[in-house]
Design goal:
The complex is a heterodimer of chains A (313) and B (363). Chain A has 313 residues and is of the alpha/beta class. Chain A is built from eleven helices and 14 strands. The C terminus of chain A is likely disordered. The two termini of chain B are 24 Å apart. The chains are: A alpha/beta (313), B alpha/beta (363).
Chain lengths: 313, 363
């Protein structure tokens, strides 16, 4: 993997009225990377993606994408970029083939051999059988495959995908990610926003956004290993009561019940005894031991550190 | 501007239109429905108007004349009152549309032949009634054949509306009204629908240019507009025998210019509206002044100066001049060039505004 940067932003901000949707974001995405954007709803993922493909003008900051400085060179960039919208944005009242032909014309794909090219595209995304079906009658997974086929037909060097799997069943999600890695393998750089931890974990590099700010940016493994906060596993006879008591402790960041056990994220340097003692004093049985950090811990810890601000859509 | 991309948008529009049954039905349904509604409403061959009779003569001859007029079925002589004043009261309250007055000196008038023998009081505010009265005025009254040549047997006294309009203006005007109603509406929702369905975000992330998108949306409806014109002309001929005195080519050329002007207005409205519902409201908002001020409903010459200035800005005003000139007076396009030029300027202005308002951005 080369270190040539495909996307570079410096101090990128976007303001909608009183809300700051993206706040001083500096990013660098290298060629061939599958770069994940992880963040809750309203964290600025979509806004950032739209600025990166020239659909929104930044309020402040610089963007260079594929060597084009935005927003000035947005039209030139649009020829080399594939952007897949969060909502299905192809025509529901056109068939699969009609949609693909329409986009092929918009992208000025060569007329010669276009039919064969589209056949191959439909075969790759298992749309061949559906070619004469109206797009609106397809299932969520099929629509997603069609949208991806339409987005990659002009072989863009960079793909921006905005929560591509939010309306798709788990099997389709897995297939979709297989397709993404295939594209990455062929040299395409991908930037994918998601709010699924398992998808985020598949990325080669991950940015966690919260209230428009970049709160973490590294490979998922490095993020998990470098997590200063540590998770503890607490086993107790009455998990619901124990959860209430643990949340009252200043050392505790978050508590999640996993089956009958509790997974507790605590500030650095907290010992298991800090948790078990108050529980035992309250008459609950309790034992605690350190657990291996997960990406969810990284996410919870990272998004907790930023001061709460007005959530923006 | 890429011809291929423009064509792709046009083909896409036509495909969508073909699958949108409601819009497709409206393209044909609205012209037919309007023509029939308006066409029969302006039909002059009225029957059974509620009327009163004031027989001040009370002779055998007067009863004979009243029976003959009653038998024509234009008037339904349901009231018999003693004085013209009583008839006028009925007229004012709207219980009758006309009153037939037979003066006491009927025999003397018929004998001398210098003054009309009968008087018909009509509610002139109602165009239909007025027209019916004019028909009745030519009613032959049995008597000495000599006087009918000099004086109409029936004198029409026109209440409330001394101005008489040529109702034949209405059918050519209707072409303009139908085109305005349908085409502005179709294109007003065109861009908004793309935005509401999320398609616009896809389009603006491609190399498609603003002109390609705007023109691609407008062009398919030109053909649709021409189909509508043909439909109205054919039905106008079959149902109402409306003449085309000028050249058909000139008529279609004028219609084409007007169609493009309406589409340009519609697509401009589409850039203002945030939802399809708003787009429809905007379309109605531009439609009403056009109907009222263009001279379709009320005669242009009778309007106050400010209203006339406003009317000059409306495409329908200019089209009515064109189409009435061509269809009714047999005028050529060369004589009507100011109206053509006005429509051309309007179109360019609207298209320019549309492209300048259309951003390939979301903010």
């Amino acid at each position: 993997m080369t270190t040539e940067s495909v996307i570079r932003t410096r101090g990128l901000s976007k303001r909608f009225g009183a809300t700051l949707a993206v706040d001083d974001l500096s990013l660098e995405v290298s060629r061939g990377e599958v770069y994940g954007f992880l963040g809750p709803n309203g964290s600025g993922k979509s806004t950032t993606l739209r600025m990166l493909c020239g659909l929104l003008t930044p309020s402040a900051g610089d963007i260079t994408v594929l060597g084009h400085a935005l927003p000035g060179a947005a039209e030139r960039l649009k020829r080399e970029l594939g952007y897949m919208t969060q909502r299905f944005s192809l025509y529901r009242d056109l068939t699969v083939l009609e949609n693909l032909r329409f986009l092929a014309a918009l992208h000025d794909l060569p007329m010669a051999g276009l039919g064969r090219r589209l056949d191959a595209l439909m075969a790759r995304y298992t749309l061949g059988e559906l070619r004469h079906r109206l797009a609106g009658t397809l299932s969520g997974g099929q629509q997603q495959r069609l949208a991806l086929a339409a987005t990659v037909m002009h072989a863009p060097a960079l793909l921006l995908l905005d929560e591509p799997t939010s309306a798709v069943d788990p099997q389709s999600r897995r297939d979709f990610w297989e397709a993404l890695f295939e594209l990455a393998d062929a040299g395409t750089t991908l930037l994918v926003s998601t709010h699924y931890m398992d998808e985020a974990e598949r990325c080669t590099r991950l940015a966690i956004l919260d209230h428009g700010r970049l709160v973490a940016d590294d490979s998922p493994r490095a993020l998990m290993e470098a997590l200063p906060e540590s998770p503890l596993r607490v086993v107790t006879d009455r998990p619901r009561q124990a959860q209430q008591r643990l949340l009252a402790l200043p050392e505790v960041i978050a508590v999640a019940q996993i089956g009958t056990a509790l997974r507790v994220l605590v500030v650095p340097g907290t010992t298991p005894e800090t948790l078990t003692r108050p529980l035992q004093q309250a008459g609950l049985s309790a034992s605690a031991r350190a657990d291996t950090p997960s990406l969810e811990d990284v996410f919870v810890a990272a998004t907790r550190r930023t001061p709460a601000a007005e959530a923006s859509p | 501007m890429s011809l291929r991309r423009l064509l792709a948008v046009i083909v896409k529009e036509l495909r969508q239109l073909r699958r949108d049954r409601l819009t497709f039905a409206m393209i044909v349904g609205i012209p037919v429905m309007q023509l029939i509604l308006f066409g029969y409403a302006i039909n002059l061959d009225v029957r059974g108007l509620d009327a009163a009779v004031v027989d001040q003569a009370g002779t055998a001859h007067s009863r004979e004349i009243i029976d003959a007029i009653g038998a024509s079925q234009v008037l339904d002589l349901r009231y018999r009152v003693a004085t013209p004043r009583a008839a006028e009261a009925l007229l004012r309250t709207g219980r009758i549309s006309a009153a037939l007055v037979v003066p006491a000196d009927l025999e003397a008038r018929l004998a001398r032949g210098d003054r009309p023998a009968l008087q018909l009081m009509v509610d002139g505010a109602d165009q239909v009634v007025q027209a019916a009265a004019r028909q009745l005025a030519r009613f032959p009254v049995a008597g000495d054949a000599g006087w009918t040549r000099r004086v109409n047997p029936v004198e029409v006294v026109n209440f409330y509306n001394p101005e008489r309009r040529a109702p034949i203006n209405t059918v050519p005007g209707l072409i303009g009204v139908i085109l305005t109603m349908t085409l502005v509406m179709f294109t007003a929702i065109a861009l908004v629908r793309e935005r509401e369905n999320g398609n616009l975000e896809l389009l603006i992330a491609t190399p498609l240019s603003r002109w390609e998108l705007t023109l691609g949306k407008v062009v398919p409806f030109i053909a649709i507009g021409l189909v509508q014109v043909t439909l109205v002309l054919l039905l106008g001929d079959v149902l109402f025998a409306v003449p085309i005195r000028g050249s058909t080519a000139a008529l279609y050329a004028a219609a084409l210019v007007f169609i493009v002007a309406n589409l340009a207005l519609g697509i401009f409205l589409s850039t203002l509206a945030r939802s399809q519902f708003q787009a429809m409201q905007l379309a109605v908002f531009t439609f009403l002044p056009q109907i009222l001020l263009s001279g379709f409903m009320f005669p242009f010459a009778g309007m106050p100066r400010a209203a006339r200035w406003l009317a000059e800005l409306l495409p329908l005003t200019h089209f009515l001049r064109l189409i009435r000139g061509i269809m009714l007076r047999g005028a050529g396009l060369a004589e009507l060039w100011p109206s053509l030029a006005a429509l051309g300027v309007f179109t360019l202005l609207m298209l320019g505004l549309t492209v300048s308002r259309l951003r390939k951005r979301l903010d």
